[in-house]
Amino acid sequence: KVLLAITTVGCSLLAGAFLAAQNVIGRAFTQDKEVVAAIALLVPMAAIFQVSDGVQSAVAGALRGMGRQKMVALLNFVGFWLIGTSIGAALTFSDAFGAAFGGGGGSGGDSGGEHDDDDDHDDSLGGSGKGAMGVAGLWWGLAIGISATSVVGVASLSQTNFQREAALARARVVVAKEDGNRSEVRMSVQL
Fold this sequence. Notes:
Elements: H1 2-20, H2 33-65, H3 69-93, H4 95-100, H5 135-158, H6 162-172, E1 173-179, E2 182-187
Antiparallel strand pairs: 1-2
Helix pairs in contact: 1-2, 2-5, 3-5
């Protein structure tokens, strides 16, 4: 709980700093106003990614420490590859999905769709009016995937009996001999 709290607070502070400097970050790299504006549009996604990635890393470390490497691998596979890249590809290349999530083209190339001239179309993502989000869609998909991985991991940890896990850890590591300043440790490995 402490690890997750520290990680969440720390990453949230960094995410807040990203958001506060949203329109300034791009200027550290270029003075081109279009590039600075495009970077500013990606900052909210980067802020979400920052928090979710930090939580996911903490969860994965705790699960690995409990010997649950298979669960970590499964969470990463499902979160990154099945959820993240699937949603990311849909948002990147698909007019239908990209438009539903506020797409507007960008650096993903020509999606082949026609821009309707509705006055209510939102081009706030710097798009060309096409529904596909371009590269921003890929990163939004990955942010969604890592967020899903984080939520499932936190839910798993919240159901963990840490007293039992500590006892299991002690059973796996047995101190065989202690001789002055030197300790010999024998570890049992579960396959």
